[in-house]
Amino acid sequence: MSAAEGPLVVGVDTSTQSTKALVVDAATGQVVASGQAPHTVTSGAGRESDPCQWWEALCAALRQCGDAAHEAAAVSIGGQQHGLVTLDEHGEPVRPALLWNDVRSAPQARRLVEELGGPKAWAERTGSVPGASFTVTKWAWLAEHEPDAVRATRAVRLPHDYLTERLTGQGTTDRGDVSGTGWWASGTEAYDEETLAHIGLDPALLPRVVRPGEVAGTVRDSHDLPFSKGTLVAAGTGDNAAAALGLGLRPGTPVLSLGTSGTVYAVSRHRPTDPTGTVAGFADARGDWLPLACTLNCTLAVDRVAALLGLDREAVEPDGSVTLLPYLDGERTPNLPHASGLLHGLRHDTTAGQLLQAAYDGAVHALLGALDLVLDADADRGTPLILIGGGARGTAWQQTVRRLSGRPVQVPEARELVALGAAAQAAGLLTGEDPAAVARRWNTAAGPVLDAVERDTSTLDRISGVLSDAAPLLERDTNTP
User: Fold this and answer.
1) Where do the DSSP E strands lie in 372-424?
2) Are 455 and 405 in contact (CB under 8 A)?
3) Is residue 239 annotated as a catalytic residue, yes or no?
4) Whole-angstrom Cα distance, residue 298 to residue 339?
């Protein structure tokens, strides 16, 4: 381990497929140790994971960090959003967690929107119009399909809440993550009693919402993690809010994240209320807002297309006229939970590389379509688009985003921005600083800027046309007899 200038902190990213832990020098931002361990996710109609796996993965990742983790003075957990974790009276999972990309609750989402005043009322009250990703719809699905599980539930948590509670013994969450549930009112910054009553969820089952900068608790005795008893535990937050902290993001700077899901977001001082449902009106982890649009199909969908074609993911070819909408898991933006992939315009001279490029184009199209809705009206359109996530360093992803956005693109050199953002939040507990200011001091957003190129409007228009023409087909629920 390198000699540290300041106290050490631990930042954790518990994502869909793995848990990563970083031990960071709070003074300099230097990563002095790291670890990672995988999770499993079910396939088929649902997307579920056993929360106990997240705990086991956290333990394994921290063991890989060695003595550095034991020396840490504070820890914070950043985690995948929206997941429904149901616990019994002993704090054990009642059933596997329903994850963000489980879209079985699409019928419940539609009913909830209709029954509680329609899209505009939802947007005004909670900041978002809930789709199948939102936790409120998953609870409604569980109540309808597994009432015994609901009756056995004594606590309801989000993924990052579950791990934080395993550390502290106290049920807590934060405004950033709870704003993605659908049962937290962004206007009042409190749990929404009308929504909870409508879905039959006792507010006593929900965690306390910790304020920005507040300590969530301290590490307790009864655990097997290499932390000292009394180590400070921050509130933690959702993965996108944590990445925004990790970038030290200022209002008006757009971010496009390429991971299992694709997201585009920016920090705003204005509370978002988009009645179309395209933009989710999330809170950030600091006290501002994080308007965000999310797609379900991003890097994994494109990699699947590459595998089907027998190509390396970088083996794209230009100048194709084929359109591929890679909605392999249904889609959230646009709101097409029952959709599957769609291919249009295939010709004798279409090459495999052009098909692969079409998958990239289809994945990026929806995110860029939401970009103007995410940004405030007075945002500078010449500000570089920050590209992060697992796909950000891929040449094909970079060039596709440049070509379809027409904007300069910046690729931060720092990796694991969710874990770095959690670490900055933990550091803020020790120094009293704004976590975003901590990340700016660490210079986490530094990286090359790729110049803007002429925007490929013809491809964007072609994809939009196919999407519009195919809407009835994409909206059809093929799982219904």
Assistant:
1) 385-388, 409-410
2) yes
3) yes
4) 15
Q: What is the DSSP pairing of strand 8-14 with strand 172-174?
A: unpaired
- Please report which confidence band the pLDDT of residue 1 belongs to, taking 50, 70 and 90 as the band edges: very low
Q: At what angle do helices 135-145 and 106-115 cross, to 10 degrees?
A: 110
Q: Is the dihedral of CA 20, 25, 26, 27 positive or negative?
A: negative
**Rounded distance, CA 316 to CA 323, Å?**
14
Write out the DSSP string of 448-468. Answer: -EEPP----HHHHHHHHHHHH
The residue among 471, 476, 456, 254 whose CA lies nearest residue 358 is: 456
Contacts of 432 (CB under 8 A, 6+ apart): 213
Q: Residue 110: what residue type? A: R
Report pLDDT digits (tens) over 361-388.
Answer: 999 998 998 888 888 777 777 889 999 9
**Spatial CA neighbour of 335 closest among 259, 261, 276, 273:** 276
With a CB cutoff of 8 Å and minimum separation 6, the contacts of 352 are 309, 310, 311, 315, 317
Residues contacting 240, CB < 8 A, separation 6+: 81, 176, 257, 263, 265, 282, 290, 292
Which pLDDT score, from 0 to 100, does residue 86 have? 98
What is the distance between the alpha carbons of residues 84 and 106, in angstroms, rounded to a whole number?
15
Pairing of strands 237-238, 74-79: parallel
Say how far apart CA 478 and CA 474 lie, in whole Å. 9
Q: Which of 25, 239, 274, 361 is catalytic?
A: 239
Asked if omega into 435 is within 30° of 0 (cis), the reply is: no
- Give the SS3 label for residue 131: coil
